[in-house]
Amino acid sequence: MCMNTSIALAHVNTECFNSAPLNATTGQPPANCCSMWFIELQFEKSTLNLDLTYDIQTFVENVNSQARKSYMLREGMITQVIYYC
């Protein structure tokens, strides 16, 4: 496994932000629900130009793999990464 040495710290906000309320009976989100996680990255001070393509691709693959293994990934679900600077 290759790690990006320019990333000093990755902090995951463990609170899940849902765009729709959970079903009162099943406790599950609606089929078209979107959940968001916020992940803060802190970079080494010497980093000026950084390519996160590999890191983002690996993150998405890991999330999807764990979701499949735990039977949480359902047809039509996607993992999308959006970043802000």
Task: Provide structural commentary.
- InterPro entries: NuclTrfase_I-like_C.
- Keywords: ATP-binding, Nucleotide-binding, Transferase.
- One of its GO terms (molecular function) is RNA binding.
- The structure is a single chain.
- With 85 residues, this protein is α+β, with helices and mostly antiparallel strands.
- The protein has a domain at 1-15 and 36-42 and 50-85.
- 20% of the residues lie in helices and 25% in strands.
- It is elongated.
Q: What topology emerges from the helices and strands here?
A:
Blueprint: E1 7-18, E2 35-43, H1 53-69
Antiparallel strand pairs: 1-2
GO molecular function: ATP binding; nucleotidyltransferase activity; RNA binding
Keywords: ATP-binding, Nucleotide-binding, Transferase
Concise summary:
This protein is an alpha+beta fold.
Strand content: 15-25%
Strand numbers in spatial order across the main sheet: 1-2
Q: What is the tally of beta strands?
A: 2
Mean pLDDT: 79
Helix content: 10-25%
**In DSSP terms, counting alpha (H) and pi (I) runs of 4 or more, how many helices?**
1
Key features?
ATP binding, two-stranded antiparallel ribbon, ATP-binding, 85 residues, NuclTrfase_I-like_C, nucleotide-binding, alpha+beta, transferase
